């Protein structure tokens, strides 16, 4: 049949692309597991002593080491480690005495809520500012946006967080303090999804909603500002490239309005690479909010990993690291899929 050959070639090409995509996922995740495994082995922290204590007898230490499989060859330990991870068994936390997976399920929604509001702030302000700076290249608007981005890259987030707490919480009282919610709502607000804003809205507890938002807005704004600095700079760069293209000159020659050229045509084309930037920025907020969570005593995954590391709880540290790495890998792959979806030219590669 006419056309059968090209259709078969397209299907074969799609299968090859899917196969390569799957291999990349498997190899990346295997690399993540290998890195976390060997980090756990080279760290100057003995997980056995963390469990039994420094004063345990040598016989007890040897027995526990054998029970945990640390007396086996390294390659055999790695195979056992992969098997446990694939079953979702990250071990038991020494600090909480709970399975690490349960602790991650409790801590991750707090980080997810914080990072999601942060990326919404970053995109909501960063994209328009980047477009504005590109359109007004070299003028005072452009200079202000570039200085904002430079400050966002240069100022340590822990210092900015402390100063923000002193000013907006301690001095002005405009926002809530450290933590996710005041104690008065901690036991009355039903924690269903782990996202307290959503839970409060679904339960109709608007006083609790306002309290949660007052605690969330300051750390989320700080994360949003740091993502804004990167997103605005990249938006400006992409828009400058698009505004110099021939189709923009042709659109102006046809008499199209400047607003339509900028927002309907140039920004639409700039959004193709910008989606990847936004997705990876979101991944960065999910895995890089450790300092923010520490400053604001935010009970998320970053604070959980930090506290576990300070208490030599290696099961929790490695489990949290794998969770963060898995999220980053997933969002990285999502950005690749979105890029291929938005840019038809990449589908035939």
TrEMBL record:
<keyword id="KW-0813">Transport</keyword>
<protein>
    <submittedName>
        <fullName>Peptide ABC transporter permease</fullName>
    </submittedName>
</protein>
<feature type="transmembrane region" description="Helical">
    <location>
        <begin position="114"/>
        <end position="135"/>
    </location>
</feature>
<dbReference type="Pfam" id="PF00528">
    <property type="entry name" value="BPD_transp_1"/>
</dbReference>
<keyword id="KW-0812">Transmembrane</keyword>
<feature type="transmembrane region" description="Helical">
    <location>
        <begin position="21"/>
        <end position="39"/>
    </location>
</feature>
<keyword id="KW-1003">Cell membrane</keyword>
<feature type="transmembrane region" description="Helical">
    <location>
        <begin position="147"/>
        <end position="170"/>
    </location>
</feature>
<comment type="similarity">
    <text>Belongs to the binding-protein-dependent transport system permease family.</text>
</comment>
<dbReference type="InterPro" id="IPR000515">
    <property type="entry name" value="MetI-like"/>
</dbReference>
<feature type="transmembrane region" description="Helical">
    <location>
        <begin position="270"/>
        <end position="296"/>
    </location>
</feature>
<dbReference type="InterPro" id="IPR035906">
    <property type="entry name" value="MetI-like_sf"/>
</dbReference>
<dbReference type="GO" id="GO:0071916">
    <property type="term" value="F:dipeptide transmembrane transporter activity"/>
</dbReference>
<dbReference type="InterPro" id="IPR045621">
    <property type="entry name" value="BPD_transp_1_N"/>
</dbReference>
<dbReference type="Pfam" id="PF19300">
    <property type="entry name" value="BPD_transp_1_N"/>
</dbReference>
<feature type="transmembrane region" description="Helical">
    <location>
        <begin position="316"/>
        <end position="339"/>
    </location>
</feature>
<keyword id="KW-0472">Membrane</keyword>
<keyword id="KW-1133">Transmembrane helix</keyword>
<dbReference type="GO" id="GO:0005886">
    <property type="term" value="C:plasma membrane"/>
</dbReference>
<feature type="transmembrane region" description="Helical">
    <location>
        <begin position="212"/>
        <end position="231"/>
    </location>
</feature>
<feature type="domain" description="ABC transmembrane type-1">
    <location>
        <begin position="108"/>
        <end position="339"/>
    </location>
</feature>
């Amino acid at each position: 049949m006419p056309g059968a050959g090209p259709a078969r070639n397209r299907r074969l090409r799609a299968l090859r692309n899917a196969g390569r995509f799957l291999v990349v996922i498997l190899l990346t995740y295997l690399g993540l597991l290998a890195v976390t495994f060997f980090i756990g082995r080279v760290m100057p922290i003995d997980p056995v002593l963390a469990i039994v204590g420094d004063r345990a007898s040598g016989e007890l230490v040897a027995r526990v080491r054998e029970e945990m499989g640390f007396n086996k060859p390294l390659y055999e330990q790695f195979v056992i480690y992969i098997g446990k991870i694939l079953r979702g068994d990250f071990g038991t936390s020494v600090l909480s005495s709970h399975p690490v997976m349960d602790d991650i399920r409790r801590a991750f929604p707090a980080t997810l809520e914080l990072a999601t509001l942060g990326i919404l702030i970053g995109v909501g302000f960063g994209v328009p500012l980047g477009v504005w700076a590109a359109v007004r290249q070299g003028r005072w608007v452009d200079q202000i946006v570039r200085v904002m981005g430079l400050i966002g890259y240069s100022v340590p987030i822990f210092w900015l967080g402390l100063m923000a707490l002193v000013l907006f919480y301690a001095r002005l009282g405009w926002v809530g303090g450290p933590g996710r919610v005041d104690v008065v709502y901690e036991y009355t607000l039903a924690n269903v999804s782990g996202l307290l804003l959503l839970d409060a809205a679904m339960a109709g507890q608007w006083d609790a909603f306002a309290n949660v938002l007052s605690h969330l807005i300051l750390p989320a704004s700080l994360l949003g500002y740091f993502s804004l600095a990167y997103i605005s700079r990249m938006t400006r760069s992409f828009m400058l490239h698009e505004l110099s293209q021939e189709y923009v000159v042709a659109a102006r020659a046809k008499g199209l309005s400047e607003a339509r050229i900028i927002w309907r045509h140039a920004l639409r084309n700039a959004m193709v690479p910008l989606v990847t930037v936004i997705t990876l920025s979101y991944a960065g907020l999910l895995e890089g909010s450790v300092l923010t969570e520490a400053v604001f005593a935010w009970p998320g995954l970053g604070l959980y990993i930090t506290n576990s590391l300070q208490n030599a709880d290696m099961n929790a540290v490695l489990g949290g690291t794998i969770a963060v790495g898995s999220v980053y890998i997933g969002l990285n792959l999502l950005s690749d899929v979105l890029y291929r979806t938005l840019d038809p030219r990449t589908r035939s590669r």
